[in-house]
Amino acid sequence: MKASITTARLTSLAIALSAAQSALAGPDDTLVAARDAFRANDLAKLANLGDKLPDNYPLKDYPDYWLAWKALDRNDDAQVQRFLTRVPESLMTERIRNEWVKKLGQREDWTTFAQEWKKLPAEGRDEESTCYGQLLQLRQGQKLDDLDRFLEGKPAPDGCSRLIDMAYARGALSQDWLWRRARLLLAGNFLTQARQLASDTQLPLDNAALSKPSIASAATAGGQEAMLYEAVRKGKADLDGAASMLLRMEKEISPDRAGFGWGQLALLSARKHLAGQALQWFDKADPRQLTSDQWEWWARSALRLEQWTQLDGIIRRMPAAVSAKPAWRYWQARSLKQLGRSAEAAPLFSQASVGHNYYALLSLEELGNSLSASASKTGPNSDDVSRMKADPAIRRSLALLNIAEIYTKPEFRTDAQREWRWAMRGRNDMQLLAAAEIARKENFYDMAIYSAERTKEEHDFSLRYLTPYREVTQKYARQLDIDDAWVYGLIRQESRFITMARSGVGASGLMQLMPATAKWAAKKIGLTHFAVNDIDTNVQLGTWYLRYVLDNLSGNAVMATAAYNAGPGRARNWQADRPLDGTIYAETIPFSETRDYVQKVMANAAYYSSTFGHANISLKNRMGVVPAR
Questions:
Q1: pTM
Q2: What residues contact 476, with CB distance under 8 A and at least 6 apart?
Q3: What is the C-alpha separation between 90 and 374, in angstroms, rounded?
Q4: 382-464 has which CATH code?
Q5: Catalytic amino acids?
Q6: Can you give the residue ranges of every domain in the chain?
Q7: pLDDT digit string (tens) for 379-420?
Q8: Tell me, which fold does domain 470-626 have in CATH?
Q9: What is d(CA 122, CA 130) in angstroms, rounded to the nearest whole number?
Q10: Which residues of 606-627 are buried (b: 16+ CB within 10 A; e: fewer)?
Q11: Whole-angstrom Cα distance, residue 448 to residue 123?
């Protein structure tokens, strides 16, 4: 009996203590607890905690937002509708509506879909919701003209597969188009999607022959596709063997299939820097079936060999959407200049020089202009800043950022970023610069850069190219005799100055060090105990490693930058058997991520150098010449 009384008293005390703690908890504590309840699927607790938040709290609607996500999982349209009706238009309502219209499309509730679809702005639609919107248009008898985007060799979400199926059933797509998509899926090894496409559209793909190509018959379309699939697959390990196989089967398969096969083998060759072979095989390819990626690698193969006449010709043949990219305007202009046709090159350099990216800088230099990183003539005033700070989305973003930092909850920082990006839509230059200044003062550096980069006429390069932690970075750059502008260019690209940044593969801190690299570098410099996310330590280890790869790669900054992202071995493998212009080396890096990384880091370095008042070194000179391997 005594034990029973004691247990009851303890339970009563625990309840009282919990109530007291709840009463003392601030709204941020309550919101963090609400998120935990959301993750635990404790909806009653989530709703209860949401009710406790004061009406003037910037994040008051977040518990209801999370409840709406759970309602979507249950197909509880009534609760979703209540949320969308009660909460003003915001990132939260947009994200819920985007997911809801996909659910409605899946269930073919087209009446409700049509009502909600028109409320969803174009910027808020993802690929699948866009496909359901087009599916509605098709059902209403409207013409669709944007389906060739599915001929890039990528799998598509369910809604897009349904769109393709209905478009074919209604005569908006031909069987030839379906074969092209199926071929691309097979080439990308997306067998399940290729088979599903064939099943949904009655495309006569030979599934048995795909699994066992030796039984494929050239007498059927499906058999020919299986033979082609085997040749392309072989090319990934044995290009010469695949080419011999394709040559033998050319008499048995249709010309469009053979042309597709040569295009695939050409792409594989180009990425391996077998440029001469790639050019020969691209000449045998069917241009109608080339993806954007293949067109670009055709051009890169000519560039790698500095075949300027051929490069100009390839760019002229590219689809307009590809040739209009700043990269290919710049390279066509370079090819014309190399061919002594400077008058033709100048307008292309002028077109490519618009903006402040890598190609714009290079084009500006070709026109004889130097980099100018001066601030805008008129910046935002205090009223501009006050109005932006009062914006509900900005208030939510900063409140979420505060929680992320105080409670060390990175997921809240992700929400803060989403809110900030949403708040920047449709803003004029002064509003963007005011927002950037707010973010800078809050140490929200990545979003300060995000806002400052979006201006069109008025620019503030001190916000675009922030310099936090200058004392630390400059100290180690000087110790190791490396360009601090280059170090800043790399940090800006790696982490946007987010000290808690952590990549999907585990890289940490300002300089995004992998655990093994950090441990190895620390051992080399005698650090026995270290915290990789400590700002000073991270910069110390990162700059030491950058100096190390620079010294081991002929002192070439372009190669060292590539090595920092993809490893020294790969950076060496990408050298040619002759000295190569650094811009050509960078353009022909096989990894898209590393190619983009190198170009952006080097362009960043040029801007930082101008900001720091260093010697005026052009970006082209910074790119230099990469020595022969």
A1: 0.93
A2: 487, 539, 540, 543, 544
A3: 35
A4: 1.10.1240
A5: 494
A6: 27-140, 156-326, 382-464, 470-626
A7: 899 999 999 999 999 999 999 999 999 999 999 999 999 999
A8: Lysozyme (1.10.530)
A9: 8
A10: bbbbbbeeeeebebbebbbebe
A11: 21
